[in-house]
Description:
Blueprint lengths: L1 H21 L3 E5 L5 H10 L2 E6 L2 H25 L11 E4 L8 H10 L3
Helix pairs in contact: 1-2
Amino acid sequence: xxxxxxxxxxxxxxxxxxxxxxxxxxxxxxxxxxxxxxxxxxxxxxxxxxxxxxxxxxxxxxxxxxxxxxxxxxxxxxxxxxxxxxxxxxxxxxxxxxxxxxxxxxxxxxxxxxxx
Length: 116
């Protein structure tokens, strides 16, 4: 499990650096699993993240983790009077299988049309 988090942290650094360099604020995380990278990008960097995952049980798990993170953030805000800028930017989830040969228009339609 630690390897998953370390991998997500490394990718997070690369993606956030690329987003800064290109003035991008929207990211799609395809094959997001339990949403560890999506969560880091949304809560940690303030990016608008859409997570696409074929396995709906992973999406359920990701939402559970998000709830835990939000509870922790709210507790820190209450206990220490912190102002957290990105606490409301949580990932949007799409439980959808995406074919490798999908067109850009079909991909966009599936991702935008199935956000939960």
